[in-house]
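Changelog note: in this version the structure field was regenerated for every chain. One regenerated record is shown below for reference.
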Amino acid sequence: AETAATDAWASAIDLARNVTEDLQGVFLLVAQSALRGLPCPSDPMIARAYGTHSARRARRLLGYFEEQGLIVVHSDFSGKRIVAFPDLQAETAPGDPNAVEPDMPSAAE
């Protein structure tokens, strides 16, 4: 609620309009992490937000956002992913792209 009340969140919603409706939730998930200074969501988390289990598809979505000029993806020295939003002047904290979220079942389940 605190983030939603900011001008930066309103700007993120405006930026999300540059992608198709099915991608807006994923875009806003990553944008929220950046605005709140949280670690970059993992590939499994991004995939789940898109309605799939494919980590490859999650990475392609980030690549698509980058091709559109909406984000810049880079890594820190330990290989953790950071996503920067130049138009929002915000970036995520480093996050492990392969991390499994605590409430997500493992592939063996």
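Spot check on this record: The first strand starts at residue 72 and ends at 75. The helical segments are 7-16, 21-36, 43-50, 55-67.
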